[in-house]
From TrEMBL:
One of its GO terms (biological process) is glucose metabolic process. It holds the Pfam family Lactonase. Signal peptide: none annotated. It comes from Bradyrhizobium stylosanthis. Keywords: Carbohydrate metabolism, Glucose metabolism. InterPro entries: Cycloisomerase_2, Lactonase_7-beta_prop, N2O_reductase_N, WD40/YVTN_repeat-like_dom_sf. GO terms for cellular component: cytosol. It comes from the Bacteria. This is 6-phosphogluconolactonase. Belongs to the cycloisomerase 2 family. GO terms for molecular function: 6-phosphogluconolactonase activity.
Length: 374
């Protein structure tokens, strides 16, 4: 006969086991519902996209190489854009015929499935959707123009509805955080053009004043908005400057507050700055420079918008593109001449970069996009 003590112990054991199993099920369920992070790398010479899955520890796992159907010749670069709902990735093809290649993003695996191709107005150095995912903005460096293409419900790009001449060498063409304005850098004319944007019709109208002039021969290239919407940061290709601006959302006005550099200490030679990104938490900014093959880090004062340089680290050869994951914990940079990608851990206190590991990509990688799925 089993004693009361033994019966109690057995019951307690069964209860403990049941509790443990319940906790395990909840944990597994929570993990199953967690967002997964994927990185997409545009490769110009191989006409494809390298897809990677990012682990919690910063490890990248290759998932897929997605080719561009109907594209035979390589272009000078492969700009990418992801729709705000994370359903579609669009790649700009810079060889004739100029077109945008749309892929559906599998929300579980991150893999890409070709949907269709649509026409672009020229060889576009930069593409981006508006904040509502209704149109595609694009900028042509060689064609000195910007354009607007409607996006179909399936994410395929339709024929352009507006093609607007600009100054020399349009390079980036991005919407404001509230989707009311769109701004275009003109690298060869040292200016930023400002347009009002009507999201319901997709139409652009020049602002007054339309052009914001920048230092001569500075070469404004890429820019990013601070997540709080109060500041803009711009990298200048020709002199290596990184400039900070106050952003006045009501009228879309820029007011320069600081100018620093992406060039590492002791630099001599010809600057060739490339890309700029800010962590999603708004605390750190990074810039790439191709002459020195470096990444420079800055701490952001979220009250004033001003930058304090943290330092520079070596990176991939000719780092035309990089990006930061949605958690603000990792940065991935690609090198056009190294056919590779290096992942760095971002120190949450200082913003300093620590190299984790390098990975092969396609040929001539130049663009990186991160996305959380689903």
């Amino acid at each position: 006969m089993t004693s009361p003590i033994h019966r109690f112990a057995a019951g307690l054991s069964r209860a403990a086991i049941a509790t443990a199993l319940t906790l395990l099920a909840l944990t597994l369920g929570a993990r199953a519902g967690m967002a997964e992070t994927f990185a997409y790398v545009g490769n110009a010479d191989s006409n494809d996209i390298s897809v990677f899955k990012l682990a919690e520890n910063g490890e990248m796992t290759p998932v897929q190489t997605a080719a561009f159907p109907g594209v035979d010749k390589p272009g000078s670069s492969t700009p990418l854009a992801i729709t705000p709902d994370h359903r579609v990735l669009i790649a700009g093809v810079r060889s004739q015929p100029f077109q945008a290649v749309s892929f559906a993003i599998d929300p579980k695996t991150g893999q890409l499935s070709h949907i269709g191709n649509g026409p672009l107005a020229d060889s576009m150095a930069n593409i981006a959707t508006d904040r509502g995912g209704k149109v595609l903005f694009s900028a042509s460096y060689g064609g000195n123009k910007v354009a607007v293409n409607p996006l179909g419900a399936n994410g395929v790009v339709a024929a352009p509805t507006q093609v607007i001449p600009t100054g020399l060498n349009a390079h980036a063409f991005l919407p404001s955080p509230d989707n009311r304005f769109v701004f275009a850098t003109n690298l060869g004319s040292d200016q930023v053009l400002s347009f009002s944007f009507e999201p319901t019709t997709g139409a652009l109208t020049p602002n007054d004043p339309q052009a914001y002039k920048l230092p001569e021969k500075s070469g404004p290239r890429h820019f990013v908005f601070h997540p709080n919407g109060k500041f803009v940061y711009m990298i200048h290709e020709l002199n290596g400057d990184v400039a900070a601006f106050n952003y006045e959302a009501k009228g879309g006005a820029w007011d320069e507050i600081q100018r620093t550099t992406a060039l590492p200490e002791g630099f001599t030679g010809k600057p060739w700055a490339a890309d700029i990104h800010i962590t999603p938490d708004g605390r750190f900014l990074y810039a790439s420079e191709r002459t020195t093959n470096t990444l420079t880090a800055y701490k952001v004062d979220t009250s004033s918008g001003k930058l304090t340089t943290i330092g520079s680290v070596p990176t991939e050869k000719q780092p035309r593109g990089f990006n930061i994951d949605p958690s603000s914990r990792y940065l991935a940079a690609v090198g056009e001449l190294s056919d590779g990608m290096t992942v760095y851990a971002i120190d949450p206190s200082s913003g300093a970069l620590t190299k984790l590991k390098s990975y092969p990509t396609g040929k001539k990688p130049n663009w990186v996009e991160f996305v959380n799925l689903p």
